[in-house]
């Protein structure tokens, strides 16, 4: 079965086999070697300086990393502005509300790009705002939000950015050097091709120094400081760390995030062109979409359930639209061990279905 849902992904045999390594106690030096390698490779993936940036690991799914980032990095007397244009932006607002973090929201329709003029006006109207939270790749629609443009709006106002990069880290460009991004949250089991269970926040060390402590298990500062001392507060998902490290080695050998971007782009375009030729249109223009996942319009008279079940019977798991989009859209991700002949077979399956 090929997984074309937005994570967990179809594993390579190499990553799958890494799960079969020896049982490991998380208080032994071998575990800390593994933890050190994962952290070092995560920082190196975007050529970051480990003296300035820390990769903080935790056990949980991508939402754990997002929650840890938001709960810690808006300081006690800080305020968060959340840019919402999909399910995941709305999730950050729910997290901020749950922790009683002062926040306001610039809300958009799910199909819309962030309106920079509205974001700028919201920042200008409220000097208390210290941070902006945004989703890099809004997986709801496949839209790649323009981090560069948003960063310049924030930089002019001396506001830092907290980025949900869960479905972009490892495959899309992220400009850490520009200085406005304070942290990016992500997970092992999307563009990195690991298994679910390990998540992480890439955070500037100076942002950690100003962080708040609002949560126990997901406390970012404590996780960071113990990991710097080759320690860990709790039992980590050891096997997920095995897979993460193996997946990061594989990614490095394949040429890093740029190579993964190029590979995903080719697959996404092959799928888009093939579906277009079969009368199935994209929900968004390619130039506004990520290379990771694209949303498509359901063909007239075909329900998602019928499409899903027919493709599943042929070995492909696709993904529904979320919420109100579930009757209009379906989504196809090209993360994981997916290659051009797989997309070709998928398109042939569509031919059979359309007949
Ligand atoms: C997948 C995803 C998440 C996290 O989902 P989990 O199920 O917790 O792994 C968060 N944000 C975005 C943009 C995602 O695509």
From TrEMBL:
Enzyme Commission no: 2.6.1.37
This protein's name: 2-aminoethylphosphonate--pyruvate transaminase
Function comment: Involved in phosphonate degradation.
Similarity section: Belongs to the class-V pyridoxal-phosphate-dependent aminotransferase family. PhnW subfamily.
Subunit structure and binding partners: Homodimer.
NCBIfam families: PhnW-AepZ
UniProt entry keywords in alphabetical sequence: Aminotransferase, Pyridoxal phosphate, Pyruvate, Transferase
GO BP terms, alphabetized: organic phosphonate catabolic process
GO molecular function list: 2-aminoethylphosphonate-pyruvate transaminase activity
Residue ranges occupied by any Aminotransferase class V domain in the UniProt entry: 25-279
Record PTM N6-(pyridoxal phosphate)lysine, positions in chain: 190
Catalytic activity: (2-aminoethyl)phosphonate + pyruvate = phosphonoacetaldehyde + L-alanine
Classification via HAMAP family: PhnW_aminotrans_5
Cofactor: pyridoxal 5'-phosphate
């Amino acid at each position: 079965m090929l997984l074309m849902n937005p994570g967990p992904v179809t594993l390579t045999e190499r990553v799958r086999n890494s799960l079969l390594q020896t049982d490991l106690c998380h208080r032994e030096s071998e575990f800390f070697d593994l933890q050190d390698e994962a952290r070092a490779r995560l920082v190196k993936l975007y050529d970051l300086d480990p003296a300035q940036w820390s990769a903080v690991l935790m056990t949980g799914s991508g939402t754990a990393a997002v929650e840890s980032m938001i709960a810690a990095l808006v300081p006690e007397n800080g305020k968060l502005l959340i840019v919402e244009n999909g399910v995941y932006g709305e999730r950050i607002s729910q997290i901020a509300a749950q922790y009683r973090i002062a926040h306001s929201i610039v809300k958009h329709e799910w199909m819309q790009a962030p309106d920079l003029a509205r974001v700028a006006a919201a920042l200008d109207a409220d000097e208390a705002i210290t941070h902006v939270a945004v989703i890099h790749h809004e997986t709801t629609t496949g839209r790649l939000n323009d981090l560069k443009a948003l960063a310049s709006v924030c930089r002019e106002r001396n506001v830092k950015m907290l980025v949900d990069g869960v479905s972009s880290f490892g495959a899309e460009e992220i400009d850490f050097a520009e200085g406005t991004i304070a942290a990016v949250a992500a997970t092992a089991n999307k563009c990195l091709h690991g298994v679910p269970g390990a998540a992480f926040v890439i955070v500037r060390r100076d942002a950690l120094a100003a962080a708040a402590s609002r949560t126990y298990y997901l406390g970012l500062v404590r996780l960071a400081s113990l990991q710097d001392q080759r320690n860990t507060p709790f039992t980590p998902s050891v096997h997920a760390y095995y897979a993460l490290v193996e997946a990061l080695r594989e990614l490095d050998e394949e040429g890093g995030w740029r190579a993964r971007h190029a590979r995903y782009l080719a697959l996404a375009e092959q799928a888009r062109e093939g579906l277009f030729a079969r009368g199935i249109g994209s929900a968004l223009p390619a130039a506004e979409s990520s290379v990771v996942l694209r949303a498509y319009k359901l063909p007239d008279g075909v329900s998602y359930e019928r499409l899903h079940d027919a493709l599943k019977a042929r070995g492909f798991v696709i993904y529904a639209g979320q919420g109100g989009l579930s009757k209009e859209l379906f989504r196809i991700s090209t993360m994981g061990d997916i290659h051009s002949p797989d997309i070709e077979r998928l398109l042939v399956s569509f031919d059979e279905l359309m007949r």
